[in-house]
Design brief:
Strand content: under 5%
Radius of gyration: 20 Å
Helix content: 55-70%
């Protein structure tokens, strides 16, 4: 299991679900604390003051959609585990600690992205009610198909989510390297965001490995189940990036 997670890391080079309505935020997020700083050339002081260099319009747009999708994905994950737990633990009580552990981590991820959306005034996806129903139905439906199908659901979802976080980490690391090459000081919040995304990604990949260890690929019709769920995840990501 550890080797699988290590391989995925090398490829980089480098509460229960909420039911409140988030206020309507401005659609022009201000990530000034994520920006780099550069030394002012118009001073003779031995310790020149540093000025904030704001992110570009394209970088704003990337972070806006990325954080919105992340929040929606973590919402869906908590709802899937919430729906799976009662039927699975009735027939397979040994799964309770694992399901509780995974749910607790997903709930922590959700709180993280809730806070980031609020801090940077990013609107959540308008598809929230749809994803809420879809995630609950997916969790309950796969649990009713049995332990293996429920674990196959986790494997499929976490495969797509892991790839999604990898892509975000690569993009942000490229920003950091570009700032460093231009002699700019990278903002502490940007470095912190990269670290948070790496941590969350690694926890999602641990869930994937746990699911495989619980016979996810022994589920009846696993190839079809895996393909359908992964396709649904990719579709939900694409929509949430835009709506």
């Amino acid at each position: 299991m550890a080797s699988k997670l290590a391989i995925r890391r090398m490829s980089l080079s480098s509460s229960p679900p909420f039911d409140f309505l988030i206020p309507a935020f401005s659609q022009n997020p201000k990530f000034l604390r994520l920006a780099s700083t550069t030394t002012s050339p118009h001073t003779s002081s031995p310790l020149p003051p540093k000025t904030t260099k704001p992110l570009s319009k394209e970088q704003h747009a990337f972070l806006d959609s990325a954080l919105r999708v992340n929040q929606a994905g973590e919402l869906a994950a908590t709802l899937i585990y919430t729906a799976q737990t009662p039927p699975l633990t009735r027939t397979h009580p040994h799964l309770r600690p694992l399901l509780q552990h995974m749910h607790a981590q997903e709930a922590t991820h959700l709180r993280t992205f809730n806070a980031l959306l609020a801090r940077h005034r990013i609107r959540p996806t308008a598809m929230y009610p749809v994803w809420k129903m879809a995630a609950s139905a997916l969790g309950w439906g796969t649990a009713m198909l049995g332990r293996e199908a429920a674990m196959a659901c986790t494997e499929a979802v976490e495969t797509e989510i892991g790839d999604h976080y990898n892509n975000q980490v690569r993009e942000l690391i490229a920003w950091v390297r570009g700032m460093e090459e231009r002699g700019e000081e990278v903002g502490g919040e940007l470095r912190g965001l990269v670290g948070e995304l790496k941590r969350i990604r690694d926890e999602e990949l641990e869930h994937l490995d746990e699911a495989i260890g619980e016979d996810a690929r022994e589920a009846r019709g696993w190839p079809v189940l895996n393909t359908v769920i992964r396709g649904g995840c990719r579709g939900a990501i694409w929509i949430s990036e835009r709506v």
